[in-house]
Amino acid sequence: xxxxxxxxxxxxxxxxxxxxxxxxxxxNPSIVIEQLRSAGYTVNIDRVGSAPLENCTVLSVRNxxxxxxxxxxxxxxxxxxxxxxxxxxxxxxxxxxxxxxx
Length: 102
Fold this sequence. Notes:
The structure is a single chain. The chain has helices spanning about 1-10, 20-25, 30-40; strands at about 40-50, 55-75, 80-100. It is an alpha+beta fold. It has a domain at about 1-65 and about 95-100. A three-stranded mixed sheet has the order 1-3-2. The protein is rod-shaped.
């Protein structure tokens, strides 16, 4: 469950630290949003100002949320059945704040 967020953070260079935050701020908002969507996130955008997206600055990427559902997996090998329960991500969302007041 947590590995998905860590993978996105690594791909974007967005660790929850001041240096990582600076890396997100330096990126084009369209690229940040598209990378998150490509990773399977529903992206919630909040913005200040009404400038076009290409003129905005990323202020923060925060609040990753995942909804999981337990799924039974049955492995029928030669010695019988092995039943495992794994968590499958059914929905994930994240928030991106933009400054579009330029």
